Amino acid sequence: MSAVSAVHYFRSTAGHLHGFTDDRSGAKLPQEQGPWRFVRTVAPDEGWTAAAEIGAVRAGIRANGFFLADYSGELTFDEAAVKPGD
């Protein structure tokens, strides 16, 4: 399977869920957890937060087509890259 390149970031309008997928339309996100609102496309080499570590996001997308993070705050991607174990 090919590596995940650009990741599309969505927010659920029904709660605290943040969704990530390789599909810009968001069709792979679980509909029962939505509706989903597109926020932005994130490059894998941008800074990632511990709430959505890039390795976990990639693994979730490869396994399920999406990754969900239940986090009440806003996610930002301009921080120093988070590495596993940090």
What features would you describe in this structure?
By secondary structure, this protein is an alpha+beta fold. It has one domain (7-70). 13% of the residues lie in helices and 27% in strands. It has one helix and four strands, in the order E-E-E-H-E. The longest helix is centred in the last third of the chain and has 11 residues, at 54-64. Mean pLDDT is 83; it is low at 81-86.
Which tags fit this structure?
four-stranded antiparallel beta sheet; 27% strand; 86 residues; single chain; alpha+beta; globular
Task: Outline the fold blueprint.
Elements: E1 7-12, E2 17-21, E3 36-42, H1 54-64, E4 66-70
In short:
This protein has one helix spanning 54-64, and strands at 7-12, 17-21, 36-42, 66-70. The chain has 86 residues and is α+β, with helices and mostly antiparallel strands.
Helix content class: 10-25%
State mean pLDDT (0 to 100 scale).
83
Strand-residue proportion: 25-35%
In the residues, how many domains can be counted? 1
Q: What does the largest sheet look like? A: 4 strands, antiparallel
